Amino acid sequence: MKWRSCAGAALAVVLLASTSSAALADPLAPTGRWSAYSRAAAQTPPMGWNSWNAFTSDLDEDKVMGSAQALVDTGLAAKGYRYVNLDDGWWLKRRESDGRMIARAARFPSAATADGATSFRPLTDRLHGMGLKAGIYSDIGRNSCGQVFTSTFPNQPEGNVAEREVGLYGHVDQDIALYFAEWGFDLIKVDGCGVRGLPSSDKRVKAGEYRAFEPIIDIDSLGRTNIVKVRELYEEVGRALDKHNPDGDFIFSLCLWGSADVRSWGKDVGAMSRTSEDISPTWGRMLHNLDSVSRRALYAHPGTWNDPDMLFVGKGDFGLEHPEAARSHFALWAMVNAPLLIGYDLRKASPALLDILGAREVIALNQDPAGNQAVLTFDSDEVQVFVKTLADGGKAVAVFNRTDAPAEVILTAEQLKFVASADVDLTNLWSGEAQRFKGERKLQLAPRQTLLFRAKGSRRLADGIFLSEQPGAVNPAFDGVITPIADPIIHRAQPPWRGTRGFGERPRYGGWGGAQADRTPFDQELAIAGRAFDTGIGVLGNSRLEVRNAGFRRFTAIVGVDDSAVDKARVVTFQVYGDGKLLARSKPAKWGQAPQDLDVDVSGVKLIELVARTTGQGNADPVTWGDAALRR
Ligand code: GAL
């Protein structure tokens, strides 16, 4: 029993360091309850339009309402694009007498009121009358991103130091009540620049322009970031949103650009969460943002989505003179369940652009009710294969050429978890063209092309589903990462806002070592004592996974310490809980010992919890739930 108390002590310390006080004393203790965020209106990824990529902060009522009208007139709204989101630039100031936020009525005439208090209610009423939803923008600190980073852009807050403090800090309840209860917004994007860019050493702070906020985020350093504090501030906003939206019809959008280890905890706090820096209309930055979500399939579920940032379809490298690249960007965002937020001046959208943004079959993949983010089943810096399991049991597959040269790709039935000896039917979702193969099919790709198919075949697991096929139903409630590590396998592109000044991009988004579908937490093949598994869940020891069970009768897995473990002496015990009760446990397992079969009756169980307990301090080594599956 000694190993147990050790683990308890180590984890209690962890908790103090990485989660809020509301968390349990022992994060491995079963709760019988799904803990990922699912309170709000995002059972499928949010869709709509946002002003930033189209206009930056140079926005006004005509531009916003023109784009809203275009959503309706073009039929995009009917296809699901409902949110019309104001980004940075809507605010004028915070009224000193009572702290009320004042909208920029010179740019939004309908917001003007006789007493100068301003109200966005007429604007949100009009949007609601058009069948749309309305989104607003703020910052978790006292000051805004525009003030901190792009102060030459138009529509920066005005007035004295206090009046220019337009962010939520110190005003959370007041602002959320105003934006949601009084003004009627349905979504808020909360940025983080105010807690990042105004140290007392900043020359604008020294000049008395802004109050100092000693940074709690350093996007370049997890070590210099106060993850607990950042998370607490966002949780406070979440509570205010719950309070002022009793109908639950709201979306909380976190904008922390992958910093503060948010790629691990965003799923517990909001409905969508940015995983990387801002997208730019360049191929390299699109790859960077895509890579920041593509190995995070287990961190997105119905109710909470990874957000690789808004769409740039129609602009720059994704302009219509580059149709393959434009379609790739859209298809990949659809496959990884990204929120689909258009960033284009829709008043000027051409039919060819609308064909891409409005592609029904592609949107349907994104909005599939099972909510399974695509899993990478072939990975390289050149070509990738993403496979997404749909609610009807079928598959969608994206075969992606990242390079500027033509590419040949062999798609295999195994990659789709289909039987190699049976027919696989592919339907091309852009052209409608059908083809059939057995075993494997050679595909030719143009530079930057993504071939996108629906696939039907004979499932390898005839009587059930592998957990790695349904990441939307598997939640790493505690993934065992005690000390966050920056993810080294994200495409490093030149940031256009810095060019080649400085060193270039170092790995800096936390998440490395997190739970993975079909690979270890460090992107190795799953293997126990020399037996490899192409299917399963890889996670660190001292972890707890929650698995939703919709009527399956057995849980089966082959478990053990993964061959990639460094500490050969640690002992791990695997436990399976059903609705909070222990159903099965493995014998204590060590590195190099034969894998153990688990076959557990889960009839009638709604929530299964998979716990891997081990001893020791800090991040434990990888363990493998090989072939983990739910069976009928
Ligand atoms: C950035 C954010 C962008 C946009 C911008 C506004 O921090 O990532 O999406 O909102 O601020 O200033």
UniProtKB/TrEMBL annotation:
Alphabetically ordered keywords of this record: Disulfide bond, Glycosidase, Hydrolase, Signal
Higher taxonomy: Bacteria, Pseudomonadati, Pseudomonadota, Alphaproteobacteria, Caulobacterales
SUPFAM superfamilies named in the record: (Trans)glycosidases, Galactose-binding domain-like, Glycosyl hydrolase domain
Protein name: Alpha-galactosidase
PANTHER family: ALPHA-GALACTOSIDASE MEL1, ALPHA-GALACTOSIDASE/ALPHA-N-ACETYLGALACTOSAMINIDASE
Region forming the signal peptide: 1-25
InterPro entries: Aldolase_TIM, Galactose-bd-like_sf, GH, Glyco_hyd_98_carb-bd, Glyco_hydro_27, Glyco_hydro_b, Melibiase_C, NPCBM_sf
Reactions catalysed: Hydrolysis of terminal, non-reducing alpha-D-galactose residues in alpha-D-galactosides, including galactose oligosaccharides, galactomannans and galactolipids
